Amino acid sequence: MVNTSISKLRELGLSYRKAEYIYGVAKLVTSGYDLEAIKYMDIEEAVKELKKIRGVGPWTAKLSLMASTGNLSLDLLEDKAVSKGLERAGLSKSDIEELMEKAREYIGLIMYLLALKYRF
Fold this sequence. Notes:
It contains seven helices and no strands. Helix 3 (about 45-50) packs across helix 4 (about 60-70) and helix 5 packs across helix 7 (about 105-115). It starts with 5 loop residues before the first helix and ends with a helix. It is mostly helical. Among the domains are: about 1-35; about 80-115, no CATH class.
């Protein structure tokens, strides 16, 4: 059983929706779901599996996989913050393709940092 509540998570400064999602993941794991096993799946399958969890989209799925596996080669192109970051950085589609080709091993990290820098 999960030893907290959504209201306790809200006290930490989380939005209601995020608290609800985190609580849901905690309940899922405590009921036997093997979240740890996902990092050993094929990347595309792992992303699909994570996206089945309520509140987990491509951004969260890929960042979770990058953090748990150390694989920083996952692009985050479908994320709106990343798209805006790349656009605000003045990168064209060909620039992005070239960047992905030259820095594939670290493209996820690069895109994450661009999204953070150009988010606002």
